Amino acid sequence: MRALYRRAARPDSQVVQRPDRAVFCPGGYAEVTTTRPRQKRSRERVEKILLAAADELARTADADALTTTSVSRSSGIPVATIYRYFADRSAIISALIDQEQDEINDLVNERIDELEVVTLDALQDTMVRAHFDYLSASRRSMVLWFGARSSKAVLGRVERRYAYMGEWLMSGAVRSGMIREDAPIYGGEIIVWMIDRAYEYIARADRDPETVDEILGLAIRMVSRSVDEFATERGREGISREQFWAAFGTFQPPSGPLAK
């Protein structure tokens, strides 16, 4: 597996910012636009802009190379028109991330639903591999999630998602009786960030599939040992799929504009 992205270097302060607004996009809403496109032609323009941006990210593997000018050149849509829907490149990238979040959520729910018995180990393994399978399927995804965090809008989305994941894991595990009630409430979010670092480590260099699997396996085992300190017999032996969904609920981290 080759390196999938180039690390971002340009801070938000070097990008011309426009007033925060809201824009329609296929995956929800992103900040910084003028009006919500209601007409079919406007929606088609937004989709064309996002497709052009996605293609460029996949081609260059460099979030810093994406500009409204480059998107205009790729999409054939004038820069002035792009600014009607997106205030800057950060808003375009945020809209793409919002699209991907919904797709990742669906994949995670599908993978978990394939488990007949859900143990803590199986849950961790399933979630880690579902996220990685999606992110590693295209260079664009790795660039979006790991190469564009110099953008406050992008980093804010990552932090919001991980906070949700940590709370979802901990509260569900306690309600289901899979971990003890004295487990630290911040434990779930720490685990999520640990796995995030493993993903980025994998993506930063050329690695063959065997090495990638070894790294993922090691990260999962490290997390599993940490969780096992607070695991109950029920967590080790597992609960039924129905019991799991009743306690955890659907995995649905929020997407769209960040709260002010």
Tell me about this structure:
With about 260 residues, this protein is mostly helical. It has two domains: about 15-90, no CATH class; about 115-250, Tetracycline Repressor, domain 2 (Orthogonal Bundle), CATH 1.10.357. It has eleven helices and four strands. The protein has helices spanning about 40-60, 70-75, 80-85, 90-115, 120-135, 140-145, 150-175, 185-205, 210-230, 235, 240-250, and strands at about 20-25, 30, 115-120, 240. The chain has a two-stranded antiparallel ribbon. Strands 3-4 form a two-stranded antiparallel sheet. Strand 1 (about 20-25) and strand 2 (about 30) form a beta hairpin. Helix 1 (about 40-60) crosses helix 4, helix 4 packs across helix 5 (about 120-135) and helix 8 (about 185-205) runs antiparallel to helix 9 (about 210-230). The protein is elongated, with a radius of gyration of 20 Å. The protein starts with about 20 loop residues before the first strand and ends in a 12-residue tail after the last helix. Mean pLDDT is about 85; it is low at about 10-35.
